[in-house]
Amino acid sequence: MNWTGILSIYRYEMTRFFRTLLQSFVSPVLSTSLYFVVFGAAIGSRIEEVDGVDYGAFIVPGLIMLSVMTQSTTNASFGIYFPKFIGTIYELLSAPINFLEIVIGYVGAAATKALFIGLVILGTSSLFVDLHIAHPLAMILFLVLTCLSFALMGFIIGIWAGNFEQLQLVPLLIVTPLVFLGGSFYSISMLPPIWQKITLFNPVVYLISGFRWSFFGQSDVPVAISLAAIFGFTLLCLGVIWWIFRTGWRIRS
Amino acid sequence: MSVILSIKDLRKSYAGGFEALKGVSLDIEEGEILALLGPNGAGKTTLISTVCGITTPTSGSVTVGGHDILTDFRAARSLIGLVPQDIFLEPFEKVWNTVRFSRGLFGKPRDDSKLEEILKKLSLWEKRLSPTKELSGGMKRRVLIAKALAHDPRVLFLDEPTAGVDVELRKDMWDIVAELKASGVTIILTTHYIEEAEAIADRVGVIRGGELLLVEEKDQLMQRMGRKQLEVQLTDPITEVPASLAHLNLELGQGGGSLIYTYDTRAERTGITALLNEVAQAGLVLADVQTRQSSLEDIFVGLVSEDVV
Q1: Which of A235, A85, A217 is nearest to A148 (CA)?
Q2: Residue (of B60, B54, B53, B52) closest to B11 by Cα position
Q3: DSSP summary character for residue A134
Q4: Domain range spanning residue A36?
Q5: Could you read off the pLDDT of A148-184 as tens digits, one per residue?
Q6: Per residue in B214-223, pLDDT tens?
Q7: What is the CATH number of domain B227-293?
Q8: Are residues B105 and A97, on separate chains, in Cβ contact within 8 Å?
Q9: Domain B3-223 top-level CATH class
Q10: Contact list, B91 vs chain A (CB under 8 Å)
Q11: Domain parsing of chain B, residue ranges
């Protein structure tokens, strides 16, 4: 393994993040505060509790998931698409580094950035609501796995995308709607019976439900299924990446 | 000298069926400068890209320092540095960071003094903290060279290093190449400019339509393929070549003040003595005589237009 090479990619990507640290830090704090104002104050005044949890606290896991999923996807997709777009990818392809090592470098950096933002949102949230995390280790595990799996998916999108529109397409048209409809701001039990069934086809439901369980000890679907879902999704992304690695799809002619 | 890069029957066909390389074989000696000359679309960049790992070969084999580029790609690629034809740089990245990144990517431990040496050699040291977008075109190209040299390669590929570069910068680039050769680096460069190959290469390869037409020592090539011209200046200009000299295929020089005789340096008899005698017999008075060697450009034009080969 070319660990120095992996570390170089990781460090290079993180430098970009730190160069815009203020922006990286301020934007999630601001958007979280806005969500609390809109959802917490406006809607929260009508819904006091969901399954015995204060509504303000109830939306925290969903808020974190919303940012973490979109951030890790866009960070990783942009990270690998940008060298393709400006041509600097020639260096990655001619270096003594294999595709797996390139993936570790880019996905690792994208996941780290998303994790950082997730923790910033958690910190900001604790200023607005009283938070107790029931299972901290499980919370971290869900958070890390979500960052990783969505960064893997983002990497695939970055390889696939032929232009900037395509780069935005999946996060905008698929990830964001799935997260919003995946119970970020409500419990599935609040939906009409038919939608309770339909919503189970949304994979994000399982992730948010599991993550919420780590906070409050209660969930819409069993935790084991949530864990299986996130592992399954990670494996699926790894499988696609392995295939790209084997065929050199869209990278090496 | 030993062979550092060996290419055997290398073929590359793209998905659309276009055959960019049609069985190229080439051995490159350690420490030499080889210039690959060829028109656009001849396969120069495909050849370089395939050796460097950017495109995968359809068939054939390449070894660098004895390491196969596919089965032992790490060892092979560690020995190679690539300077691409276009300026591919991240605009907001500082010179120092991008060069350090290249060294790390090739698995080499951090070595600031090494990078300092490279940047100073390429006159980039003062600009090390500038984002690459603030540099001039010539400097950007030197940053690409610095990146390619950051991991101490033994073979350096320069793809059209002076394309679109003004004359002065081109000379600078030639000096850089000469210095690199002096430090023991093997250099393979592609170029459109014949004078570039003529000025700096030890050997010249001519590539056309994915085939390597020939590879030869530059001096030998010029000698073998070279034709010489003898120009006889006349004291009194003439309007046409006298009929008695018609069999010599002479051309009339500018303003009729000279006669130009083209001959083959390889021929046993150049026919110069006979020419001079016959010119005198025709009643023409000689003012001066000079000879001229044809340039690599003439040779190249002859080769790619299939007149010679």
Answers
A1: A235
A2: B60
A3: S
A4: 21-246
A5: 999 999 999 999 998 999 988 888 888 888 888 888 8
A6: 898 988 877 7
A7: 3.30.70
A8: yes
A9: alpha beta
A10: 86
A11: 3-223, 227-293
